[in-house]
Specification:
Layout: E1 10-13, E2 18-22, H1 26-35, E3 41-50, E4 63-78, E5 84-94, E6 104-110, E7 115-118, H2 124-131, E8 139-144, E9 148-155, E10 158-161, E11 165-166, H3 180-194, E12 200-204, H4 209-218, E13 227-230, H5 238-246, H6 249-254, H7 259-275, E14 281-283, H8 285-293, E15 297-303, H9 304-309, H10 312-324, E16 328-332, H11 337-344, E17 348-352
Parallel strand pairs: 8-12, 12-13, 15-16
Antiparallel strand pairs: 1-2, 2-7, 3-4, 3-7, 4-5, 5-6, 8-9, 9-10, 9-11, 14-17, 15-17
Helix pairs in contact: 1-2
Length: about 350
């Protein structure tokens, strides 16, 4: 069964010029970095230190208070690990009269924070970046056997792991003392701590334990409405089982339209073309940039290394230019084997519409 998935940050349109946004992962923050421009205005919550001068004494250290401000953007940058967005600018309005208008302030936007963006005019690419990230569905990956269970939530191409859960089973010697239902309860609690409404649960691992666990959780009122699929062919449990699944052909078959499956197919195609010494792909930023200038790119995959090692604004402008030409772009990180492979290939690869000499 193939699963069709769309990825999108939480958004609410206020009016023609303003949209409220809550980023849910690092992909959302990267999209926001690509959307925000100098002189855009944002409304968000932040903290500000207010200092008071006392008679005959030095100024005190001040009190840090929470305020809501409207900021005219002057500078935007991503954090080194892409999990924060740093936004600097001039305060236009605030909900505290002690906060001076016209002063400079830096706001840190984290995953889960809410901001409202106001623009004089939203460009088509900016709307597409928001639209391409809506109705986010994730996959809860469960690699279980009688000894342990690995659980991870796959969002786009990012894997978020929980600590392994161990059953306490010691093999055949302890078989009569081992109650697998108690182990299943612990795994179910782990699932409930990370599952979201639209997530699909995919269960795999050696032997029949996966089927027994699937039957167990289907009886739960908390999980019975979730989509659930048990698959064969992954014979490892725990964290190793999760990694084995994300690199497998089975993953591509059952998650056909997922971001991870599409990226995996692109990387496989690039390696096939490289072995054939074809000119229909690029590796590294300089060659990919040149191919984009020719309008030759069909799709690109890039890792966080690209933004960390090159001028950030140059990369953002490049990504926006690529997408404005109808090219599909995919970001990956080091939480998966695919992300590590892309980093090892220079941080970016592309498939081309036709062969080019660079």
């Amino acid at each position: 069964m193939a699963v069709v998935v769309e990825y999108r940050m939480i958004t609410k349109t206020i009016d023609d010029n303003s949209i409220s946004i809550i980023p849910e992962d690092s992909d959302d923050l990267l999209n926001l970095r690509r959307i925000l421009k100098i002189n855009d205005q944002i409304v968000g919550d932040t903290t500000r230190v207010l200092k008071k001068d006392k008679d005959f004494t030095r100024p005190d250290k001040g009190e840090r208070i929470k305020v809501r401000i409207r900021l005219a953007l002057g500078k935007i940058s991503l954090d080194d690990v892409l999990d924060k967005l740093r936004i600097g600018g001039t305060i236009l309005e605030s909900n505290n009269e002690s906060v001076p208008h016209g002063s400079h302030h830096s706001l840190i936007l984290n995953i889960g924070d809410s901001i409202t963006i106001s623009k004089k005019k939203w460009l088509p690419i900016e709307k597409n970046l928001i639209k391409s990230s809506n109705n986010k569905q994730g996959f809860i990956l469960v690699a279980i056997d009688t000894a342990d269970c690995g659980i991870a939530r796959l969002k786009g191409t990012h894997l978020e792991f929980m600590p392994n859960i161990y059953s306490g089973s010691g093999g055949k010697r302890y078989k009569t003392n081992f109650k697998i239902e108690k182990f299943f309860v612990e795994v179910q609690h782990g699932l409930l701590s990370i599952i979201k409404e639209k997530d699909m649960i995919i269960i795999f691992g050696p032997g029949e334990t996966k089927k027994r666990f699937a039957n167990f959780i289907q009886k739960s009122q908390n999980i019975s409405n979730s989509k659930l699929q048990v698959i064969e062919g992954i014979d490892s449990g725990g964290e190793d089982g999760i990694y084995t699944f994300t690199k497998s052909e089975i993953m591509k078959e059952i998650m056909t339209d997922s971001k991870l499956a599409k990226v995996s197919e692109i990387i496989d195609e690039v390696m096939i073309l490289a072995n054939k010494t074809s000119k229909k792909f690029t590796m590294g930023f300089d060659d990919t940039f040149a191919a984009n200038q020719m309008g030759a790119i069909d799709s690109i995959v890039f890792s966080d290394k690209l933004i960390q090692e090159y001028d950030e604004q140059k990369i953002i402008d490049f990504l926006n230019d690529v997408e404005s030409k109808g090219v599909k772009s995919y970001s990956v990180d080091s939480s998966t084997d695919i992300g590590l492979r892309v980093t090892g290939l220079g941080g970016i690869v592309s498939l081309l519409r036709y062969a080019v000499e660079i």
